[in-house]
Amino acid sequence: MTIPVWSQADFNTLFSPLTRVADAFAPRAQAIPSLTVALHPGHVFNGIGLIQIGAYLVGDIASGSPTVSNLPSTAGLGAGLQVVGLGIPDGTTVSSVGSGSVTLSANATATLAGTALTFQQVTPAFMAPSGNPRIDRIVVDQRTGMLTVVAGTAAATPSAPTVPAGKIPVAQVRLEPGVTGINDAMITDERDVSRLGHGYRPVDTETGANYSYLDTDHYRLKQRSNGGAAMIDTLPGTATGVMPAGWQVTIGNADDAALLAVIVGSGASLNGSASTILYLGPSQRATIVSDGTNYVTSESPARCRLGAATSFYVATTGSDTNHGLTTGAPFATIQHAIDVIAKAIDLNGYRATVQVADGTYSAGAAVRAPFTGGGEVFVIGNVTTPANCVISAATTHCFLLRHDAVLSIGGFKLTTSTAGYALYADIGATGYIREAVVFGSIVAGYHHLLAQAGGSIYVLSNYSIDGAADIHWAAVESGRIYAKNITVTLTGIPNFRNLFAWASSMGIIWCDGDAFSGAATGVRYTSDINSVINTGGGGANYLPGSAAGSTSFGGLYF
């Protein structure tokens, strides 16, 4: 068995990096005591990479010359750093930095090749207090690593001053009245090495509806809450100044229920788009980084996860560049609200309500896939007076559902003028009418309700009809319409150009227990090709119309 032999060089190689980490920004008194304190070289993480301040290097010096040459690197060096080493006079600082060399503020007193040098920060001279002692604090900037001194207040029992935002505490210095020099006994090292160049983020709690991010928020975790109400935060744009390159912040939603939307001020973008809005649900967080011109997310959840029932708002006065979480900043279109929910939201078992303000809208929405996370999406207008919230679709359906999509609606008057159905559930999709609607005029060739190819429509509320359509209820190709135990009010004697109810190709219309008020013209029903219209024994004249219905090819009506 071979027993390894360790040399001093081996130990130096192994432990020197660890020593450098532990020694980062270590405070110490000067070799010849003065009213200044030196900080060993160190580094901080600026959001992009490590920033080095000071260095331990070897270089060549010559007696009578202010130049240090043959430095292996000048990383971390800058004017004003103190230089300590053999042949270097006390108090010498760097005057300028060249390529592989530096110029000093004093000439070397010896000629040495490969001499060890320390380049370090040094504080300004502390001012001695009079009457009572004082505690001052040395801090370094989280982003730059540069030191500053925060003066305390003299008192019989002094306390240290508060650490400013964006700074990391390094040391406390206790100054007695009339002191002329600082020694190590007067210095209390309070460094937290985990915060120097590593992933620790100081945590701030911010409450309220709005917050605008500041330069001093760099590399901090901002925990946001607003008592269950929506929060809207802003990353500054060009008007107030985009954050400098490397600035970053982690934003956390600490609210139990509400969503947090992060928007960008004018002139800047987030993830390549000026209109990008980042939504965060309860307990979610994201890290945002500035490149000096725009912002990107370095980490964020794939979807905003709801923690409670949540509302999005739509109004004719809105804009699809808004966040949509408040009535003061609504979306302009129902489709955009649906797209935000479909692409960015995990319902997490909760209901998302799209609250649509009174007015006339030229389109409703198409939903072509199930929403993520179960739950329910409910698009709701004016449930008291649906005629005040009109979807007047010009070239498409008011609501189109496909491919197993599920959507609830209510509180609208639905009309089309060039093409389109009022509510169309296709290919396994399901639509629910949960609140009152008014079915208005539908362009020729289209119907009020169409359930097709395994699609289903459930009518769970009383509603009214005041406009014509080819067909009111159409359930075809295994489509199903359930409209049971409701009241349907017909006003103005609407005309159904083909018929009121049509079940075809194994379609089912279940409409027992209904009450119809008013009259209509057109054929009452047709049930064909192994389909069913179940009126619960309502009789041949149960459904509205002016002409008798019929069955054929195995269709049933009972």
Task: Provide key terms for this protein.
single chain; 558 residues; mainly beta; Jelly Rolls; 4 domains; 10-stranded parallel β-sheet; 8-stranded antiparallel β-sheet; disordered N terminus
Count of all domains: 4
Q: Give the strand order, joined by hyphens, for the main sheet.
A: 25-27-30-33-36-39-42-45-48-50
Mean pLDDT: 93
- Strand percent estimate: 35-45%
Number of strands: 50
Q: What is the helix tally? A: 2
Assembly form of the protein: single chain
Radius of gyration: 37 Å
Indicate the low-confidence ranges by residue numbers.
Answer: 1-19
Largest sheet: number of strands, sense, barrel closure? 10 strands, parallel
Structural commentary:
This protein is mostly beta strands. The chain has 4 domains: 20-122, no CATH class; 134-195; 206-299, Jelly Rolls; 381-557. It is built from 2 helices and 50 strands. The strands form 9 sheets. It has a 10-stranded parallel β-sheet, with helices on one face. Strands 1, 2, 5, 6, 7, 8, 9 and 10 form an 8-stranded antiparallel β-sheet that branches. An 8-stranded parallel β-sheet has the order 29-32-35-38-41-44-47-49. Residues 1-19 have low confidence and may be disordered.
